[in-house]
Amino acid sequence: MGLVHFDRRPYDELYAAFRWPTLDAYNIATDVCDKWAGDPDRVALIDAAPAILARFPEVRFIVAGDGDRLGEVADLARRVNQRLGREHVFVPGGRTDAPDLLRAADVVVGVARVALEAMATGKPVVIAGEGGLRGVLDADNAALMMACNFTGRGSGRAVTAGELARLLLELLDAPDRRTGLGLIGRELVERFFSIERVADQVEAVYAEVCEG
């Protein structure tokens, strides 16, 4: 993974593109394909929005990405925004500036590559997606998360709006914890998933083959 792409600070251009006010607000990002939770008419993060907004009324929810059900996700977001009386849920579709979206986030919900890219930006991650819920990535569970490829498969825990809201509210309530978790994730990516690390592993394999 080329970490340089995740080190830029994108806020001015990104906020202008979405016409977001540059007021203090929390951004929570996820991927369209990561958030289907059993019922195909539901997206857990969008369903969790009202409970989160009751405590943090300036939160924005960014549900990015593409897929067969993008239209359904966008329709759900419109209905929720109508009920809320304000646009809190944004569904921008497929984009080429994923690193910028992740850097603009305060918390990221996702699995697999989405989780890894969020870790590369130094953001705290809630491992939750179609395969299930693992929870917040931290130093204690990092080895398990890596063994599961940063997915919820085999966790035995369904992704529900209530549980997701609980985890996100805990993170929004603790800025120092968010910072610490982001540093843990970034360090993991640097140690195990950077281009330099992968290149070293490939070189070691070639050396072993040549010596054999």
Approximate helicity band: 40-55%
Mean pLDDT: 82
Under CATH, the homologous superfamily reads Glycogen Phosphorylase B
What is the distance, rounded to the nearest whole angstrom, between the alpha carbons of the first and last residues? Answer: 29 Å
Low-confidence stretches: 35-40, 201-207
Order of adjacent strands in the largest pleated sheet: 5-4-1-6-7-8
Strand content: 15-25%
Describe this structure in words.
By secondary structure, this protein is of the alpha/beta class. It is globular, with a radius of gyration of 18 Å. It has helices at 11-18, 44-55, 70-84, 98-104, 112-120, 142-147, 161-172, 175-192, 195-211; strands at residues 27-31, 36-37, 39-43, 60-64, 89-93, 107-110, 125-129, 132-136. Strand 4 (60-64), helix 3 (70-84) and strand 5 (89-93) form a beta-alpha-beta unit. It has a 6-stranded mixed β-sheet, sandwiched between helices. It is 49% helix and 17% strand. The longest helix is centred in the C-terminal third of the chain and has 18 residues, at 175-192. The chain starts with 10 loop residues before the first helix and ends with a helix. It has 9 helices and 8 strands. Mean pLDDT is 82; it is low at 35-40 and 201-207. The protein has one domain (3-211): Glycogen Phosphorylase B (Rossmann fold), CATH 3.40.50. Helix 2 packs parallel to helix 3, helix 2 packs across helix 7 and helix 5 packs across helix 8 (175-192).
